Amino acid sequence: MPDATLEELYREILLDHYRNPRHHGVLDGANRHADGSNPLCGDQVMIEARVGEDGTVEAVTFSGVGCSISQASSSMMTVYVSGQSTAHALEGVQRFQQMMLAGEAPEDSDLGDIEALAGVAKFPARVKCASLAWKTLEQALRTADGHTSTVTTDEKGVSDGGS
What we know:
This protein is α+β, with helices and mostly antiparallel strands and about 160 residues long. Helix content is about 40%, strand content about 20%.
């Protein structure tokens, strides 16, 4: 597939997730929660998840405000982790971060439509927009039941990962 056609397909995927976000809203019965913010641009996201006793992400939602990249990334992330084990979800966070650094998905990746965000790596200021939901999810899954945690993408932020 020519690069221009592939870029157009990726653009359509991003716009679809932005215009029709999946798993957007408040989650009743959530037992994991984290808030994330990007103070440089004003993106804000709240991730709520319900993790079963067996470690399965039974449900996950996001809410908040932000640019099309942060909102599309949040939507894609919820689709990716819903129904997966927390271990698989956390591996996905690491693969996503690798993709943001390298500009392409790792070879052993199973990120699917999320690979549409690989081009964001060309724009370092936008990497934080794309990564916000993923970092916030990571914090939510690593936080004990019922506790709230906050993530920022500034240099002093929790789980910044150097981006």
